[in-house]
Amino acid sequence: MFSVLKKLGWFFHREKRRYVIGVFLLILCGVLELAPPRLLGSAIDDIVSGSITWPSLTKYILLIIGFLASIYLVTYIWMHKLFGASNLVERLLRSRFMSHLLRMTPPFFERNRTGDLMARATNDLRSVSQTVGFGMLTLTDSTAYLAVIFLAMSTLISWKLTLAAIIPLPFIALAMKIYGRIIHERYTLAQDAFGDMNDQVLESVAGVRVIRAYVQERNDEQRFTDITNDVYKKNLAVAKVDAFFEPTIRLCVGLSYAIGLTYGIYLVFHNELTLGDLVSFNMYLGMMIWPMFAIGELINIMQRGGASLDRVNETLDVNPDVQDVANPVVVEGPNTIEFKDVTFKYPTSTINNLEHIDVSIRRGETLGVVGRTGSGKSTLLKQLLHEYPTGSGDIKISDVPIENISLNQLHGWIGYVPQEQILFSKTVRQNIQFGLQDASDEVIMDAIRTAAFDQDLGTLSDGLDTLVGEKGVALSGGQKQRVSLARAFIADPDILILDDALSAVDARTESRIINNIRTQRSSKTTLISTHRLSAVEHADWIIVLEKGCIIEQGTHETLLESGGWYREQYERQQVESGLTDEEV
């Protein structure tokens, strides 16, 4: 049960001063709380004996008020220390969790669902934070505070009456052990179900247009109803066990009261106990109710926190599929890019996705990558991002294997525009500035003109300050592509990768963007994959892929002369664009 505290030992060690002060003051508060009942018992004995006077009564009242004021002040401090730690550990773990996700590579996100990761970053981390805050309170109260009360009852009142009153306590311990084990199992299942629900909501919101287009609203509502019912049932299963804690403790506390009152009256009648002592004892017995409840809360909190921490650590313990080399080679710049007999297979694939790729690019050159859908164009370009473990063969930049280059330096050279554009729920300006922080409007407009988005900017309601909506929902496909292009252009990267990034723009706009790239990136490397061959006519070298293999390569002119797939596809596209064979 307490393994969760051991796993969080790093935090307790880091904040040991906070916890030493907090726990000490919590115990001190418990000691101070013993005084008012004892003073009240003494006052009752004085009243019974007839020795009470106004000065002594005033003394009792002032002492009780003084102790209550001290308890108030000490309680404020220990609550600030312990519950402040709860917020602190949640912030630390959430930051660590987010940093860990940002280091993860695509295979990790292929294996883990977004909704489940969100559940771990919210509900699970909140349960862990309760463990180091409220959990430490219940741990202290159910041990030290309970021991202090027990010591006061046995030494200040009667050890015989105390032993008789605590007879029901072992039954509480036994019940808590049984309930705790069941809570751990059921709470883990409930949190897994919550992750499934999160994932369902994310998919429904992201795909709402498709759902409506196929008139699947009712079916999606039913799926959501089913999954929420599953979450409800699993949380209800937790609540059913949780509901046993309080009645069990109340039953045992009631038995303690019955034993204490019955035996206490017997001792009073036999002059082994005064009436004031019996009143004080019953007040102490009432003070034991919370520590006994704290035992149940402690088991509950620790089991929930342990289950949640296990889920969080399960994610944090995953190492990136691609890690930085221990001693990276410092490369001045990407003067050459070379693929030498490269063969690659995705972790989830059963066949090679690239086979025996040989291609070389020098700084300032443009490489065009074309081929049928699924031929491996995107896979080839992504090799430069080094998101997956490299296969066989060598990928070198400036004659240095890519595995020996720091990931930060590698990614710092690259501007990447993927097939599916990712825009943030911010303004057009903020999305473009993602490529260059604090870029001025003049620099932003230069990037926008390069991406041929300047004419569209005037059609937006607030210009650069127009909110694009979640994932750019307020923009058309072509507009999203050009905002993504502007984001890459403003970074002015040494290597620009355009992965079918012009598919949603018309031929005239594409021609303008390509001319801008040729003019402004004459001294830098560009890689373009596309289905529209007009986008790579200007390329210094073009490769044609088929099932991960290079079946043709050369310049635009030599590929047309070879009469293979490239020429056939080019002529078909020219006809489709309304040009005659004579104009080709």
Automatic annotation (TrEMBL):
Kindly list the places in or outside the cell where this protein is found, as annotated in its UniProt entry: Cell membrane
Q: Which UniProt keywords apply?
A: ATP-binding, Cell membrane, Membrane, Nucleotide-binding, Transmembrane, Transmembrane helix, Transport
Pfam families from the entry? ABC_membrane, ABC_tran
Predominant place of localization: membrane
Report the superkingdom from the record.
Bacteria
**A GO-annotated cellular component:** plasma membrane
> What SMART domains would the database entry show?
AAA
Q: How does the record say this protein sits in the membrane?
A: Multi-pass membrane protein
Q: Report the InterPro entries cross-referenced here.
A: AAA+_ATPase, ABC1_TM_dom, ABC1_TM_sf, ABC_transporter-like_ATP-bd, ABC_transporter-like_CS, P-loop_NTPase, Type_1_exporter
Report the PANTHER family cross-referenced here. Answer: ATP-BINDING CASSETTE SUB-FAMILY B MEMBER 10, MITOCHONDRIAL, ATP-DEPENDENT PERMEASE MDL1, MITOCHONDRIAL
Identification of the protein by name: ATP-binding cassette, subfamily B
- What is this organism's lineage? Bacteria, Bacillati, Bacillota, Bacilli, Bacillales
